[in-house]
């Protein structure tokens, strides 16, 4: 896979037109969800090329990252006579870039697309690296392909309409990037104060964080080895997220990752001696900013069953990425159901559940 250009810009319209002018295409489609159509699309008003684009608008939020919304995108592409020479822009958070990337990758066996993330989570993680897909059968990202966008255009101009919860959701993936990179990067992340947010500081941390992901994806684009480190916190996190959908009380992806990180650091301690002090420090940061995901022992069987579908699994055991310490990553670690339930018990103790 060739290196995917990730471009930071403060003049989004000019940058889009500059990138699009490098391509020859017959029709341009812009995919948004209802919110990004309202908040983000107007910010492209100075783009000459986007002003003639066909709009595709889907319902917002992860509960719509599904087959029905995907089908509606395929249908519009087909009805509007999109061809293999057509081009798509995914303008939205991770829900739009995941679903839109998959729609583009599969329509007529693949049309080219660029991602313009409008959330912090999208910018730091989802829009970058070529994982596309939808949720299916109650499981996160169960169907999808690896196929990177032609380019990713990151502009903080979109962040003005994001809530604190949106920012915190993206920040959880940044904490993950910190944990798998270096103590220096990680420790800086713990100093950000969300009760008195310094946006400039956040943006500096964002640029550093994207580089962590870019580097790993460049080395291992198809998640055969070290890319599994980007899945830290997700074996449990995805189970929490799916359970929240089942409960009809969906949590944001990054929140699920934040709580998943704590459970997986507890497993990291049990398997590899990850320092307890660091777990206490991070769980305090997460409890203060994210609260807790409520679980009881009644949920353990259901959570474990969900983890048996994790994409990293081989044969019957649940596969985790664990840490010996910050920046010391061990992939392909398996844990028994008993160990996982012990981690849930400890998580509940830490979060007073
Ligand atoms: N492909 C990957 O590598 C990868 C990585 C991380 C996460 N993900 C996926 O990304 C998704 C989560 O992404 P997300 O957190 O961006 O969620 P999201 O796309 O659902 O966006 C969250 C909410 O914010 C709204 N929104 C988006 N941009 C806005 C803006 N500028 N102003 C106001 N509202 C705005 C959306 O409409 C939505 O309601 C999950 O499906 C997750 O599985 C994928
Ligand atoms: O880019 C990756 O690789 C990741 O794992 C990034 C994750 O933050 C992201 O949530 C991803 O979609 C999870 O992928 P999955 O393969 O576990 O579904
Ligand atoms: Zn994630």
Automatic annotation (TrEMBL):
Q: Where is the 3-dehydroquinate synthase N-terminal domain?
A: 56-167
**Gene3D superfamilies membership:** 3.40.50.1970, Dehydroquinate synthase-like - alpha domain
Catalyzed reactions per annotation = 7-phospho-2-dehydro-3-deoxy-D-arabino-heptonate = 3-dehydroquinate + phosphate
Look up the EC number in the record and give it. 4.2.3.4
Report which superkingdom the organism of origin falls in. Bacteria
The protein's required cofactor(s) are namely: Co(2+); NAD(+)
- Report the function annotation for this chain: Catalyzes the conversion of 3-deoxy-D-arabino-heptulosonate 7-phosphate (DAHP) to dehydroquinate (DHQ).
Q: What is this protein called?
A: 3-dehydroquinate synthase
Organism of origin: Coprobacter fastidiosus NSB1 = JCM 33896
User: What is this organism's lineage?
Assistant: Bacteria, Pseudomonadati, Bacteroidota, Bacteroidia, Bacteroidales
